[in-house]
Write the C-alpha cells for this entry.
Amino acid sequence: MGRCLIIGCGGVASVAIHKCCQNSEVFTEIMIASRTKSKCDALKDKLQSTTKTIIHTAQVDADSVPQLVELINNFKPDVVLNLALPYQDLTIMDACLETKTNYVDTANYEPLDTAKFEYKWQWAYRERFEKAGITALLGSGFDPGVTGVFSAYAMKHQFDEINYIDILDCNGGDHGYPFATNFNPEINIREVSANGSYIQDGKWVETKPMEIKRVYNFDQIGEKDMYLLHHEELESLALNIKGIKRIRFFMTFGQSYLTHLKCLENVGMTSIEPIMYQGKEIVPLQFLKAVLPDPATLGARTVGKTNIGCIFQGIKDGKPKTYYLYNVCDHQKCYKEVGSQAISYTTGVPAMIGAEMLMTGKWNKAGVYNIEEFDPDPFMEELNRWGLPWIEDFNPTLVD
Ligand code: NDP
C-alpha cells in the first residue's frame, strides 16, 4: 500500500516498527531514520527476515530541516511518523510542509529551555498544512492518543454531551529498581515535576506538583495512589468535546518513586537550567538521564500490568450517564511479542495505527488536527486487532 518514514529509534519507535512489520499490507516499505544509525540497522537486522515490509535505514539529525527535506525527497514517504523527541516536532513539520508530506506524532512540541507543553506552536501550522493539502495528526500515542479516540468514541456512540472526563493512567508494573523511569527520563521527569493543572469551566486551575492525590481500585491491578498532573490532551479535548465542564488527568506513582524524585529535586538534579561543571556547561536533568537505567533495558525485568482509560460523565437522552473505557496491557506479554515493556507498547501501537489511518485514506482532511477530531471507529477496530483491546464499564466507580 505505502511508504512510511519513521524518525527516531528509541523505545516507542521500536514497538511501532515491529507493528508496521506485522502490518506489511499497509506498510510495504519503511525507512527508519534516527540520530544513531547503528540502532536502526540493528532493528532492521532483527526484523527483515520476519516480514514482507522492506526496511531501509538512514542517519538524520531531526533538528535540521535541510537534512530532513533531503531524506524525504529521496524516500518519498506517504507519511512521516515522528517518534523522536518533542523538541523535534517543529523542524519535522517544517520539512513535511516543504515536501508536502503527511505528518504524525505522539507528543506536542516543547521548547528545550521551558518545560511547558502546549499545542499553540503546532496549531499555528494549521493554515499552511491546509493550503499544502496535507494532514498533521497530533498526539497518536496512548495519552495523548487513545484517550482522545476513546473520548471521540464516547461522544459519538454513548452521549449527547460529555460534562466530565477523568483520564486515569495506572502503571502497576514493577521493574525491581528503586528508581527508574519507564520512558525517556528527561521527558518523564519534566512532566511529573511540573505544576499540576486541570480544566474547569473553560479555565485552567493550577495545583502544586502532586498536590491532589486520590486512591483508585484498577481492574486487574488493584488499589493504587494516583496524582493529578498537567497533561497535554486536556487542552485539545476541552475544545473538541461538546459540553465539557471539567477534565482532569491522574497518573499512579509508587512511594519509592516519589521519595527518590523529591530527593533529586531537593538537590537540584531535576533542573533544566544549565550549570558549569569542570569548565563545561551541563544540564543537571540530562546528566541524571545518563546515570539512570535506560528505559529500553527495563522490558525484560518489568512484571505486572498497565490500565489506562477515561471515565466519562454526561447526558444521554436527557438522563445522566457514566461510562469508562480502558485498556489493560501486560508488561511481560509485550516483552515476549516485541521486546519492550507496556509503556512503549501502549504508545507504539497507536502510533502505527495513526500512520495507517492516513496511509489508507481512512482519515483524510488537510490541516493540523488532534486525534479526537477524526472518526474514532476505524481506529477503535485497529486497537482490538493490533494488541490493545478495550474494555467498557457502564457503572464505574467515580473519582471524587
Ligand atoms: P527515546 O529517548 O527512547 O527515543 C527517542 C529517539 O529519538 C532516539 O532514538 C533518539 O536517538 C532519537 N532522537 C533524539 N533526538 C534526535 C534528533 N535530533 N535527530 C534524530 N533522532 C533523534 O524516547 P521514547 O521512545 O520513550 O519516546 C519517543 C516519543 O514518544 C517522545 O516524544 C515521547 O514524548 C513520546 N511518548 C508519548 C507517549 C504517549 O502516550 N503519547 C508516551 C510515551 C512517550 P538516539 O538513539 O541517538 O538517542
In short: The first helix runs from residue 11 to 22. The chain has 14 helices and 18 strands.
